[in-house]
Amino acid sequence: MFSKIRLQLITYYLIVLAIILTIFTIAIRLTFSRSLHDRLVRELTALAQLAAEELQEEDGLEEIEASYNGVLKGVTVPKQTTIQWFDGDGKLLAQIGDDRLKPTLDRKDPIQTILFPESLKIVVFPVAFSDGGEGEAYVRIARDLDDLEETVENLDWGLGIGFIIALGLSGAGGLWLTRKSMKPIEESYQRLQQFTADASHELRSPLMAIKTNAAVALKYSRGMREGDFEKFSAIASASNQLTRLTENLLMLARLDRNIRSQREAINLTELLQNLLDLYQSRITEKKLNLRENFAKNLEVIGDETQLFRLFVNLLENAIRYTPENGKILISAKQETEKILVSVKDTGIGIAPEDCDRIFDRFWQADLARSYRNSSSQFSSARIAGAGLGLAIAREIARAHGGDISVFSVLEQGSCFTVSFPLVTLSI
Q1: Do the Cβ atoms of 81 and 153 come closer than 8 Å?
Q2: Is the pLDDT of residue 241 over 60?
Q3: From 3.40.1160.10, 3.50.50.60, 3.30.565.10, 3.30.70.2740, which CATH number describes the 264-421 domain?
Q4: pTM of the complete model beyond 0.70
Q5: What separation in angstroms does the CA of 257 have from each of 199, 201, 389?
């Protein structure tokens, strides 16, 4: 049980950490990429200003290309950079660099990014001449984004590897911390299990004495006052309930502690048939319609006493919560690698929000709350017992490598299905 809890804790921890690291990684990536693009825009803008000054100092645009030697105002122009000069009408007058740009000029957006067919960053800069006129010429500078994209790709690889390493180390550390933090809880739970087992065992003797004396008093009740007879009846009833409770607690304690019981091949078909024979009188007394559908010679490996207890609990629930003239169907069959045993009834059913809780120990559905707005004939039904029957049934099934599932509809009935593997490992 605690292994499953530890696994859930470390899983939730890693999920939360992965979300945080993902957000952090995306933030770093976007910030870094944005910073690279901004720096490139500043560099291209500075080059555009130099190219504009070059244009202002030349006698004419036609001399720009001839006089250009790869240097603007003492600044070396990086490779993969294209410089173009346009007149006020957007006509290309001169160009230096690769012919990768369309000859038409888009003056609306001073900073442009082209991703297809080539990745380019473009800056369009207006030229102001000495006479104060603006818009008479433009400088357009473009540069490949290959280097920038390669830098971002390297960053992605680094962040991805760091993400995996951080998640792995955090998972190992989280597993260690989870074990350390769960250790006191496990020790406390084990002490509680031991106390439950010891207390249940020690209570059996005094309860048996009370039960025996009450039974003797009720058997020889001559001369007993009527009020005393009722009191002894109450004592006998209470002692029976306490006896069942202690037996249930003792069995749960043994199942929790994985106390090894004798395992052998069990004919499940015969076991279920014997169970029905035992409860036939109760079923007849309550006027229930019982049907059975058993495959022949179904076998599982396990403890016969525990398996019998499992199906006793399921059948008693079906009998208790099914009204007179209701139906109970018990079936057993083999499917692929499993053996399935179903106990289906037309009883009061279980609310959808309660289906996940009915296997919890000491939990019982509040029928009065479930049916307070219903005119159903089940509205006055009362759940008897301590709420341990289904918990014990589930623990027995799991101890045999199986499990129990439930499907239920209010006022229509429930179906409990127990699954066993064909080959069950001993526990």
Answers
A1: no
A2: yes
A3: 3.30.565.10
A4: no
A5: 15, 15, 18
